[in-house]
Write a structure and sequence with these properties.
It is a single chain. With 281 residues, the chain is α+β, with helices and mostly antiparallel strands. The chain folds into 3 domains: 54 residues, Roll (Transcription Regulation, Sacy, Chain A); 99 residues, PRD domain (PTS-regulatory domain, PRD); 108 residues, PRD domain (PTS-regulatory domain, PRD), CATH 1.10.1790. It starts with a strand and ends with a helix. InterPro entries: BglG_antiterminators, CAT_RNA-bd_dom, CAT_RNA-bd_dom_sf, PRD, PRD_sf.
Length: 281
C-alpha cells in the first residue's frame, strides 16, 4: 500500500490494491515517510475504511487527526484499546473523533486554569461502573503522556464517551439515558425503601438492562418478541411487589417520556427487580 497523505507519525491515508482509500494507524508507522512511500504492513494496528454510509465519519476522522496534536490521538487509541479489552466489545469508530476532541480541549482548559463540572458525575459513577473505572485509568494515561492530572469529573466524561461508543448514540442521548436510569433506580429505591448496593453483580446486570431499555425508549422501539400473555400473568401474580414497582416505573416513563412499555418489557424488568428483591430479603 502506498501513502497518499501523512497525517502524523502514526497515521496515514493510503490506497489499497483494490483502489479503496483508507486511514491506517500504527505506532511509528509514518515516521520519516512521505507521499508515495510504501507502508510497513507489520506496523498496522487499526484500519478505518470508507463506506457509502459513513463517508462523513471518515472525513471527520481525517480532519480530527490533522487538526489535533498526535499525542491526543495516541491517548485515545490507548483508551479505546483498554476499553475494548475490559468490556470485551468493539466500540464505534466515532469515539476516535469525539474522545480525541474532548481530551484535547479538556487539557487546554485545565492548563488555562478552567475546569468543567460534571453535573452527572454521581449518576455516571453508579450507572456505568466499568466505564468509569476505565475513565480513571484513562486519566493515568493522560497524566503519563502530557504530565497533567485532570480531575475525577473528567473520568466521568470519558466514561460517557465510552458508553456513547458502546450504544452508537450521540452524546445528548447518552446523557438522557443516564438521567432515565437514575430516575428508575430512584423509584426502585423508594418503593422498597432500600439502599442500592452498586457493587452487587445483580444490580450491575439490572443497570445494563436499563441502559438498553432507555435506548429503546429514545429510539421509540420496543422489545416485543413473545406476546406471551400467560407468562405476563404468571409474573404479575408471582412477583407482586416487583411487578407493582414495574408499574410505577411504567407510569413515570409514560408520563414524562410518552413511551409505553410492551408486556415483554414489563416481564423482563419485573424479573430483574425480583432478583434484586430476593437479595435484600
Amino acid at each position: 500500500m502506498k501513502i497518499l497523505k501523512v497525517l502524523n507519525n502514526n497515521v496515514v491515508t493510503v490506497k489499497t490494491e483494490a483502489g479503496e482509500e483508507v486511514i491506517i494507524m500504527g505506532c511509528g508507522l509514518a515516521f520519516g515517510k512521505k507521499r508515495g512511500d510504501n507502508v510497513d504492513e507489520s506496523k498496522i494496528e487499526k484500519i478505518f475504511t470508507q463506506t457509502r454510509e459513513d463517508k462523513n465519519l471518515y472525513k471527520k476522522l481525517e480532519d480530527t487527526i490533522e487538526r489535533i496534536p498526535a499525542e491526543y490521538i495516541d491517548i485515545t487509541e490507548k483508551i479505546v484499546k483498554l476499553a475494548e479489552e475490559k468490556l470485551q466489545m468493539k466500540l464505534s469508530d466515532t469515539i476516535y473523533i469525539t474522545l480525541s476532541d474532548h481530551i484535547y480541549f479538556a487539557v487546554k482548559r485545565f492548563g488555562d486554569g478552567q475546569s468543567l463540572k460534571n453535573i452527572l458525575f454521581w449518576e455516571i459513577k453508579s450507572s456505568y461502573k466499568d466505564e468509569y473505572l476505565i475513565g480513571q485509568e484513562a486519566l493515568k494515561i493522560i497524566k503519563d503522556t502530557v504530565d497533567l492530572s485532570l480531575p475525577d469529573d473528567e473520568a466521568g466524561f470519558i466514561a460517557l464517551h465510552i458508553v456513547n461508543a458502546e450504544l452508537n448514540e450521540n452524546m445528548m442521548n447518552v446523557m438522557i439515558i443516564t438521567k432515565i436510569i437514575k430516575e428508575i433506580t430512584n423509584i426502585l429505591k423508594y418503593h422498597f425503601n432500600v439502599e442500592l448496593d452498586e457493587e452487587n453483580q445483580t444490580y450491575y446486570r439490572f443497570i445494563v438492562h436499563l441502559k438498553f431499555l432507555a435506548q429503546r425508549l429514545l429510539n421509540n422501539t420496543t422489545c416485543n418478541h413473545s406476546n406471551d400473555d400467560e407468562l405476563f400473568n404468571v409474573i404479575r401474580a408471582s412477583y407482586k411487589e416487583s411487578f407493582a414497582c414495574t408499574v410505577k416505573i411504567f407510569e413515570h416513563i409514560k408520563k414524562n417520556y410518552n413511551y409505553s412499555f410492551s408486556r415483554d418489557e414489563m416481564v423482563y424488568l419485573s424479573i430483574h427487580i425480583e432478583k434484586l428483591r430476593k437479595e435484600w430479603n
